[in-house]
Amino acid sequence: MDMGKPRVRASLSRVKEYQPGKSVEFVKKKYGLEKVVKLASNENLYGPSPKAVEAFKNFEDLHLYPPSQPEELIERISEYVGVEEKRIILAAGIDGILEATFDIFLEKGDTVSISPPTFPYYFTLATIHDAKIERLARNENFQIKPTKTNSKLTLICSPNNPTGNLERCEVVREIVREMAESDGVVFIDEAYVEFASQSLLDFADYENVIIARTFSKAFGLANLRIGYAIVPEWLRKEYLKVISPFPLSTPAIKAAIAALDDIEYMRSTVERIKKDRERIFRILSNLGVKVFPSEANFLFMRTKPDFCEELMKRGVIVRDCLAFEGCKEGDVRVSIGREEDNDFFLEKAIELIG
Ligand code: PMP
Predict the structure, then answer these.
(1) Which of 95, 118, 211, 294 has most ligand 1 atoms within 8 Å of its beta carbon, as the pocket-test mutant?
(2) pLDDT given for residue 18 in this prediction
(3) What is the CA radius of gyration of the chain?
(4) For labelling, which of 14, 93, 164, 233 has a CA lying 20 to 30 Å from the CA of 293?
């Protein structure tokens, strides 16, 4: 054993470090390119409302701690989702809500149900917490199949990352009811809900359901790390015990409030993204590419193994899904950017498809 190096938790030997995608700068340098577009992280490339940027910039008291769970933002989120304030909790992104959820519910050896392919951080957290992982099967449209489960925590992502599909209400209802019988919790991740035709928010009425949302996607504020959850009233105080004392900075709080004040801006960018999502879906499908219908701000495709690398050489960074459990070589997720980004992607993709 190395002297002076304390042993870390044993579970970390099974956890892989987060692998961020290649940056624009890296790809420019590596391939000597002038123009590189990144469509790999499901960001809203139209950016946030200019009013949010202004609100962010107009705060100078950086030496003061922010409020812990800012009332005004909670009030505004309550109006936006139509759920009482006493059922809303804020954290640093959905990532923060997820971490808190594991801290509240998971004891060593508990079972967590996850349905691959899905958001990789679920696996990371389950592994860190020494949970047993139960894998729920998906059908050919990537929807979770009707299933029996009595795990401690089931994670449902709708629309699902990376496949873009919604989960079926009747299947979710069955899972929620079964989990209730065995004191299990259902976590519904709606990171991409603003791009979707349907939400699972109605399930928020169950005492064992948590619905998580974010300002990172449709609102274009990924860098500010603003997430929230709609939780049963009894659960809010448990979240307040485990969430870090000051999860959001005041510039982030102010930007989120301004973004909600200018909701039309968000909606107009979402409409443009949805329109282009359908345009790209149609064009690629007509070219014979296996691309799946999506309710999010990205499309999932089954392509040739070297597709990502070849696209990168031409200046487009997309997400190679090989690292997602349940995906195979050639599986690709492309984020829908601004119209000009999407045109650039299409031009290069068509060059490759031939
Ligand atoms: N859930 C899903 C399904 C995601 O795709 C992401 C972002 N990649 C997150 C949660 C994390 O979101 P946030 O930025 O709010 O932490």
Answers:
(1) 95
(2) 85
(3) 21
(4) 93
Task: Transcribe 119-184 into DSSP letters.
Answer: -THHHHHHHHTT-EEEEPPB-TTSPBPP-----SEEEEESSPTTT-PPPPHHHHHHHHHHHHHTT-
Mutate which of 102, 216, 223 to test ligand 1's pocket (most atoms within 8 Å of Cβ)?
Answer: 216
Contact between 113 and 153 (Cβ < 8 Å) = yes
Atom of ligand 1 minimally distant from the CA of 227? 15
Ranges in the chain annotated CATH 3.40.640.10: 50-262
Q: From the CA of 214, give the closest atom in ligand 1.
A: 15
- Walking along the chain (354 residues) 10 residues at a time, the average pLDDT comes out as 85 90 94 97 98 97 97 98 98 98 96 98 96 98 94 98 98 97 97 98 98 98 98 97 97 98 98 98 97 98 95 97 95 98 98 88
- Model-level pTM? 0.97
Q: At CA 134, angle to CA 130 and CA 139, rounded to 5?
A: 150
The topology under which CATH files domain 12-47+264-353 is Aspartate Aminotransferase, domain 1 (3.90.1150)
Task: Quote the ligand 1 centre to 217 CA distance (angstroms).
Answer: 8
Centre of ligand 1 to C-alpha 150, Å, is: 26
Q: What is the pLDDT of residue 125?
A: 97
Residue nearest to atom 12 of ligand 1 (CA): 94
Delimiting residues of CATH 3.90.1150.10 domain(s) in the chain: 12-47+264-353
Ligand 1, atom nearest to 119 Cα: 3
DSSP for residue 245: S
Q: Whose CA is nearest to atom 1 of ligand 1?
A: 191
3-state secondary structure of 286: helix
Residue with tokens 């997720």: 333
CB 292 within 8 A of CB 301: yes
- Predicted confidence at residue 354, as pLDDT, reads 74
**Per-residue model confidence (pLDDT) at position 1:** 58
CATH class of 50-262: alpha beta
